[in-house]
Amino acid sequence: GMLHPLTAFEEILPWLALAILAAFQGAKRARWLFAAFPLGLLAGGALSLVLPNPPFIPAVSLALIAITGLAVAAAINVPLPVLIGLAAVMGLVHGYQNGREMTAATDHVLFISGVTAIGYAIVTMATALAIAFLQGTAGWRPIALRASGSWVAAVGILVLGLQFLKPGMN
Prior knowledge:
This protein is mainly alpha-helical. It is built from 7 helices and no strands.
């Protein structure tokens, strides 16, 4: 379970953007991410065991990439409940998607625990690194992180747009 999210760029990209967005909110508010996101992953993984595959989940996942990237690019100061909600929803969606990848031979508890653990580790380390990076003396640092957010948003919007193309369209 720990390796599965690490094999897909579309998994890690929004997690990193979420961590950067949390860093822009300050260390005290960013700490809430460390509970909300892994709990969302855990709940999403558990839901994947009982909930049929809704067709809108991939679009929601891509929209979350775009929204989070845009929020980072704008360095928006979001209210704490919005940050917690975004982290929980992103965790829920990504936990569900990862859980749907389990096979019958997979130990479900171990897999979901692994996804949750690696999600916690990545978001915690990325948030800490982004907070430390922002505390540097150079004024270009927030701009660099905001530029990375614009690229995340561009990737999310591009891939979301490609979801609506039908084969054979010109």
